[in-house]
Amino acid sequence: MIRYIVFAFIFFTATAQAANQDVSATVSQNPVYVGKAFTLTLTANASLSSSEFDRSKLLHHGFIVGSTSTSRQIDSINGKITRQTQWVTTLLARKAGDYTIPALSIAGNLTQPIHIKAVAYHGQNATQQQVLVQTKLLAQSAWVGQSLLYEAKVLVATSLSNADFASPTADNATIKQIGKDQQQTEIINGKRYRTLTRRWLITPEKVGELTIKGPELTGSAGVIDPSFGMSQEPVDVTGASQRIDVQAIPNGFTQPWLSAQKVTIDDQLSPKNTAPKVGQAITRTITITAQNADLSQLPQIKFDYPAGLRVYPEKPVDHLFIKDNHFYAQRRYSIAIIPTHSGTYNIKGSSLTWWNIDDASVQYSKIKPITLDVANSSGTAPSPAKNEPPHQTDKKISTNKTKSPSPSNIHSSNLWLWIWIATCLIWAGRELWGRYFKKSSPPKLTPQSEHEAPEQSDSWQKFATAAKACQSKQAEHALRQWLVHQDSGMQERLKPLLAELAAMAWHPDNSEEPWDGVSYLERVNKAKRQSTSAKRTKTQLPPLNP
Q1: What distance lies between CA 447 and its chain's CA centroid?
Q2: Phi, psi of 455, rounded to the nearest 5 degrees
Q3: Is 352:364 a contact under the CB 8 Å cutoff?
Q4: Distance in angstroms (rounded) separating the CA atoms of residues 332 and 272
Q5: Which of 165, 212, 348, 409 is 20 to 30 A removed from 68 (C-alpha atoms)?
């Protein structure tokens, strides 16, 4: 009886020990070095799925958690089969101190917690030698609202995967990335690096000292181990911090505040001659370029034009770019000008005030005034009526003797009149037939009209109505308003048609020859469809992979 009791006690004791040893956790070293990777190995005496281990449990205990690999093993000794699953995870401690790897659950069983001590490493480990982050900020001081170019370069001498490169941070400043990343290969101190350069614009918003914390790079870097070959270790590298002194805007400077190294204004007329004719469209292009300034600093400029000039400004186009280690903010204004009467027009100039950051002084960039001498379509002063000698224009009308129009001239004028009347009657007949005799159906929207804003649709409707009614001036005005909201491709395609309509609509003698608005509307619709089709073809191209 006693023998069976002892046997049962031994059996249950061994079973309990085996149950406690179903899962275990070990580390490759203890203590560990700060910034030096070490491994955590979990072992289960069973064949389990890799998802049984949730490594996210380690994220909240001060470690940088790297990749995890899973392996399985089956052994047969003296007919007894054993199964084993292992998870190997790479960890890294950021700071010196005491850490705890908590109890981890594997298939319902818990491992024992592990207490780890992290100590400072006085040398430079292999990972730190392979991955570097360098930062550069040329300015040591700045004015409030002055944008600064900040540059960070990542140097990698090994493989780098799962990389994440965060932006620099700073209190009381706005930070935005500018330009594209630049990648190249460099040899530094005889060592080959793959480099990535990224730039940001940093704009201080408060007077005082500004601290810019460097960008942080995290990922997995390949490190050669003499015993095991290439292995992946987590990497966490942060660029050096920068400090600058921010000064207040100088007293007495008129707003808006624009600080730059250089500001230029280019004002061009197209065509270049300054003697246009009535009804001839002139394009005025004003380009403002500020060196080492942000787009947010460029002011909106308004221009005054005298009566007798019809003005159609387009939406300003902004551009921010980097050239020769300087960044530039550029704004381009495009204004269409159409003289409606002959005479001399004086367009006033303007001035832009800005602060020179190099010599700390107020500067002025000026837009010069423009004089336009507008002539009639013939290029001369208004001419007297046809078939009347010029020298008789000062005599009384009762004494003028004019030649009676020939039958051929009368026949030509009547022919144009009847053509115009017939065109309008045909259009009116189409409208009545479609309205009263055809079943109405919902209009089909083209891809472009589906996305048009209400004001764009309204302008197009006004243009179509005026064209069908053969009203050239109203059609020209509505078409120009609609075209302002279209993309550059549509504007370029319809620009010749618009110039043709403007020249005819504002011609001093346009009343002599009726305008065929219906045919013109068909030509515009055709050009519009061609532009939309070309745009759709471009957007449907599949992405091109190298």
Answers
A1: 23
A2: -65, -30
A3: yes
A4: 18
A5: 165
